[in-house]
Design a protein that fits this description.
mainly alpha; single chain; 6 helices
């Protein structure tokens, strides 16, 4: 019997999917004050989010994280698709890290103490890129 996903993808999909799903579930029903803080940081990096109400932003982010976390956890979702979603999501987080003053040392990508919680998301980008590259190159075999 063949697994719907490669065995080598199971551990990183489980770890990353559970982490993102938990994050999304935690944001679900976020109070106005917390949503405003989250939205404030996001719109500082991505000004187009200014037009979105903070609670709407938090609800949409929560839904996106829940969907991505579930996609990574469910073996019926192809790894290429789940990996592409992970690349997009983590790229957005890292973009926020790079665009937010005080998150990294001036003239460097090295995180400050405040930036470490966002900078650590580079591991998700690495996992997502690994999934995409592995799926694209293994199809040739």
């Amino acid at each position: 019997m063949r697994f719907p996903i490669a065995l080598r993808h199971v551990a990183p999909r489980l770890a990353t999917g559970a982490f993102i799903l938990n994050s999304g579930l935690t944001k679900r029903g976020m109070d106005e004050e917390s949503a405003t803080g989250l939205h404030g940081m996001a719109k500082g990096a991505y000004p187009f989010l200014e037009k979105t109400h903070p609670t709407t932003f938090a609800r949409l982010l929560s839904s996106g994280e829940i969907a991505l976390g579930a996609a990574l956890l469910l073996p019926v979702v192809p790894t290429l698709l789940a990996g592409a979603g992970l690349v997009a999501f983590s790229s957005g987080l890292l973009g926020m890290y790079l665009r937010t003053p005080g998150m990294h040392e001036e003239g460097s990508v090295r995180p400050t103490e405040q930036g470490t919680p966002l900078a650590k998301d580079v591991w998700m980008l690495g996992i997502g890129l690994g999934f995409v590259v592995d799926e694209l190159t293994s199809r040739r075999r």
